[in-house]
Amino acid sequence: MLETPLGWGLLLLLGSFTGVLSGLLGIGGGLLMVPALTLFGIPLVQATATSLVGVLLSSVSGSLRNLSAGELNWRVSLLLAGFGIFTAQLGAWLADRLPDAGQSLAFAGLLLLTLYLMQLRQRLQKTQSVACPANVQTQSVRVLPTAGIGLLAGLLSGLFGVGGGVVMVPLQMLFLGETVKAAVRTSLGAIMAIAVSGLVQHTRNDNVLWIPGLCLGLGGVLGAQLGTRLLPRLSERLVTQLFRSFLIGLAVYMAVRGFTQAG
């Protein structure tokens, strides 16, 4: 089905939707792309690798827009990426060696962890809005916590085909004192290099399906442009509620898939 115009159109729509979420929430879109690709019958490790193509292109698109608007802190993005590229290689190496069932169950666990991190992010955002004006940003870069966040994001990116922003954003708010919008933008910038690193290793393992990945990426480019433009003016409440519903549904699907594969 992926080799037909209908399949390409579905992938473009999927990429556009995840690109919007990427720009709004600072995620690479892989949380949705990977389970969706498995519905097409693609093995999980190939879905993981292929989603990184879309993750890369959508993060480039969103970051270029943020850069042109003068809203991207490259110092933090580069530091996060500098550590994340190493563990992205490790994650991709592990993904090629884990059984499909185990990786499916682990992905379901990641989706549930994401729900908690989104709630943490909301609490931090409310605390920030009371403690300081929304336009105040931390000027100094704290190397050790930034390194830890980058290392974790890289591992998740290579292992699960996600950008890592869904983990980076609340951790940046918690440990680096960034505002939510600053964290979204810097994490999206870091995702570019991290996704490249994971793709290099997955390409060596011959796991990347380039045409489906490029279809996802093209849709992601369009969607990320819209998402980053909406970020300064759109309330996240409705988007977050919808995204939470998707995460619960996808977690159930991946868990069932994992137990089915194990049986």
TrEMBL record:
It is found in: Cell membrane; Membrane. Pfam families: TauE. One of its GO terms (cellular component) is plasma membrane. Coiled coil: none annotated. The keyword Transferase does not apply. The chain crosses the membrane at residues 32-60, 72-95, 101-118, 149-176, 182-200, 207-226, 238-256. It comes from the Bacteria. It is a multi-pass membrane protein. The keyword Cell membrane applies. Keywords: Cell membrane, Membrane, Transmembrane, Transmembrane helix. InterPro entries: TM_pro_TauE-like (IPR002781), TSUP/Inactive_protease-like (IPR051598). Belongs to the 4-toluene sulfonate uptake permease (TSUP) (TC 2.A.102) family. PANTHER family: MEMBRANE TRANSPORTER PROTEIN MJ0441-RELATED, MEMBRANE TRANSPORTER PROTEIN YJNA-RELATED. This is Probable membrane transporter protein. It comes from Pegethrix bostrychoides GSE-TBD4-15B.
